[in-house]
Design goal:
single chain; 339 residues; alpha/beta; 2-enoyl-CoA Hydratase, Chain A, domain 1; 2 domains; two-stranded antiparallel sheet; 10 strands; 49% helix
Length: 339
């Protein structure tokens, strides 16, 4: 997935990680860093150097905009999985004050792939739940790469029960390749735990807004995404199975993942057209991983707008709206079928 790092003079090397299709931008930005380093070291004419730097920066920005304007589904999959994309803890740190994390399912133990707790979102008390993948190798191992075990979904149910009891709106952040498929997870009732979590989302008497922030994989995603409003970042993906998994099943060849991604309709644009999601949240040019603070602020504004529309609804109306929203997916009118 990640193949290029911008290289510069001496020990000065960009820490930004590039995807394979971003190589033209990587080369330009490497030149920008080289020119800046040379100017600093040699004390060259600031005006001429400034003009050249401005020209290269404009060229890089245009190249990046052109690339991201025509990403195919497989490229969007790579962006959705980017290691520098904002994680659940990043959203909470920026958008939620007085956050108190709550742990354990009160049945078996704690699961670090799904985190949750109470706090204030723009001054409004809420319950936040989300998948946490981690960023470093150590963090990824701790959080099991965002793949939750049954106790993670049972913890989510416990926290949603708490939200219902104290009339707290629920905001969830989805970013997982899917629920953990290990033997221990299956022995402890993975399918039942996912079903119970999905059911609890649907029966909540408080507003629920879900954000597909990166990967939205299989039942492991929908277990905390069966919400009144489902928002999706522009370059995220949401699917019943990963492209690699679909290719392995359909063609016995995971190498055809790109082909599967195109056929599965997993992008925000496709899913909005199908009515699976409600709104697309735009990302900064180059993806949320390039300007995470800007991306998080945009997500915060979208969530606030969705909550403002849902807060006035009664518990009965919220359940009815949620039920109708999901029942409408895939529904065709009789005259459309006969056409």
């Amino acid at each position: 997935m990640l193949i290029v790092r911008a290289l510069t003079l001496g020990a000065r090397a960009s820490l930004r990680t590039y995807l394979d299709f971003e190589k033209p931008v990587a080369e330009i930005e490497a030149k920008i860093e080289e020119l800046a380093a040379l100017a600093e070291a040699s004390g060259a004419d600031a005006i001429s150097q400034g003009v050249e730097l401005s020209r290269l920066k404009a060229k890089a920005e245009k190249q990046l905009a052109d690339i991201y304007a025509k990403l195919d589904p497989w490229q969007k999959t790579q962006v959705a999985r980017h290691q520098d994309r904002p994680r659940f803890r990043d959203y909470v740190a920026a958008l939620v004050t007085d956050f108190v994390e709550l742990s354990g399912d009160r049945k078996y133990g704690e699961d670090a792939a799904i985190l949750g707790g109470t706090g204030k979102f723009l001054g409004r008390p809420i319950l936040a739940i989300g998948h946490e993948k981690g960023r470093t190798t150590q963090e990824r191992l701790k959080h099991n790469f965002g793949m939750a075990r049954p106790e993670g979904y049972r913890k989510a149910v416990r926290l949603m029960d708490l939200a219902d009891r104290f009339s707290l709106p629920v905001v969830s952040f989805v970013d997982t390749a899917g629920a953990y498929p290990g033997i221990g997870a299956e022995e402890r009732g993975q399918a039942e735990a996912i079903a119970r979590s999905t059911e609890r989302c649907l029966t909540l008497g408080v507003p629920m807004v879900a954000v597909i922030a990166g990967e939205g994989g299989s039942g492991g995603a929908i277990a905390i995404a069966a919400a009144n409003k489902v928002l999706m970042l522009e370059h995220s993906i949401y699917s019943v199975i990963s492209p690699e998994g679909a290719a392995s099943i359909l063609w016995k060849d995971s190498g055809r993942a790109k082909e599967a991604a195109s056929a599965m309709k997993i992008t925000a644009q496709d899913l909005a057209a199908l009515g699976v999601i409600d709104d697309i949240i735009p990302e900064p040019t180059g993806g949320a991983h390039r300007e995470p603070a800007k991306a998080i602020a945009t997500v915060g504004a979208a969530v606030a707008e969705a909550l403002d529309a849902l807060i006035p609804l009664s518990p009965t109306d919220l359940r009815a709206q949620r039920r109708e929203r999901f029942m409408a997916i895939g529904r065709f009118e009789a005259d459309a079928l006969s056409a």
